[in-house]
Amino acid sequence: MKSLIEKFKNYNPSKYLCYLYFFVPIFMCCICNVDKENDIWFLLNHGKYILNHGFPHLEPFTMHHNFSFVMQQWLSSVIFYISHEVLGQYGILLVILMANILILYSLYKLCMLISENKFRLSIIISCITDVLLLIFMVPRPWIFTMLNLILVLYIMELFYKTNNKKVLYFLPLISLLQINIQSSMWFMLFVFMLPYIVDLFLKERKRLSSFPIIIVLMFICGFINPYGIDNVLYIFNSYGNYYINNVVSEMQAVSLNINEVSIIYSYLFYVVIAAELLIYIFCRKGKFELRHLFLFLGVTFLGLKNIRSMWIFMIGTIPFLASYLKPYFKKLSSKEKNLKLEPDERKQYYSIIVILVIYTCVVSVIVNSKFTNELKKGIDAIYNTSNVTDSTTIYTNYDNGSYAEYRGLKPYIDTRAEVFLKKNNHKEDIMKEYYLVYNGYISYDGFVNKYKFDYMIIMENERIYDKALKDKNYRLIYHSKKYKYSVFERTIDRK
Fold first, then answer.
1. Any residues with CB less than 8 A from the CB of 330 and at least 6 apart, and which?
2. Does the reported pTM lie above 0.85?
3. 39 pLDDT exceeds 60?
4. From edge to edge, which strands make up the β-sheet containing 393-395?
5. Has residue 336 got a pLDDT over 90?
6. Could you please report the per-residue DSSP string of 242-309?
7. Are 44 and 81 a contacting pair, CB within 8 Å?
8. Per DSSP, what are the bridge partners of residue 487?
9. Environment class of 301 (CB within 10 Å of its CB; exposed 0-12, middle 13-18, buried 19+)
């Protein structure tokens, strides 16, 4: 470890070469495949609905009636929908890329602040953090939440170091954005502020005088949304549910059980935390700040609790290694800061940048040339029967419902898990029923007879698949060998 530290200490590339390192996470972000994220379909559907009809208060997309509804990520949906309308899948990718660039820059500024302007260290840590975050850089509202939370950390760190009270007045603006971008994560703004407030309470209580008015303003801004208090309290009705935690893989705790779908994320979590602990153990020159310790403990708990919170763990721990590692890195000298490229060098440097940009764009276009879903042909087969109406109902599993919804069908369930909790919809606990059906605790006949689905899209690995094949009330109209699912149409008692 010491030899590795010495190599880092003696590694002094020019500032222009360091700037090129930013292309690594940017390039990797550009080659993500935007149609692999099931949530994009309901987000596009939500954005379209809002622009055409306004804010719904009854759930309008599924087969269920009069479900109370809060579109907690309405602004994110509108952003994705408009970008898709203008540039198709490349518009969505552009939104992801722009969010990632802002995240990368914010991480860099945070690291510069924490490390006291250790330029090379800040670039290394910000790039590493961003690369690790790329597994979560998908068309989901949390890409905007990431940016907001990093900005909160930057503002709190800046206030802690400089006592500049004016920077705190950006927090209410972030609160206003967050409640409309993804209200389920709104309370995380206060969670990220808490370690700094506790630290100041223990050390310098006089500096806390600015926070009561800031927090009040943040709460006031939190109520500026289309759904009022329902949006503010959304998280309390949506998380910690047993059935969601068992159905939704990203809500499961990190585990090294090789049978778990989450195995890759779990290994990554433990590798990252092990690397951080090794740095803390062997790099004893650095000072472990109390506020950073509180933040580390809090986000590590969240990271252990479920896979979805791993990105919270990463942005709350990795950048703060800059505080611990800063004694091993030098600041840029005045000569390095003022270093200017010669005309020929400048021409070569900008040529490299242009080549990297073109190469990134070409690869991105190739990777994202197709924007579809594995259910496309199956749903095409449904529409080819000419029996589809506005009241047509369809059974899909949790993962497939959002695309069916996007195509204009009324699915039984989709990936908006919390919408199907009775605590939210005030009618029926569909998530519980789905869990029981999926695991064979409710009979196939009882379930199908209750809803009399017009169509069913069933994966071969679902328990009800074999029973659907034998059901005389349904006929097989499409089968996909590649994706291993079948589409069934009801032949009697059509609604």
1. 12, 118, 120
2. yes
3. yes
4. 410-411, 393-395, 455-459, 485-490, 474-480
5. no
6. HHHHHH-GGGSPP---TTSTTHHHHHHHHHHHHHHHHHHHH-TTS---HHHHHHHHHHHHHHHH-GGG
7. yes
8. 457, 478
9. exposed
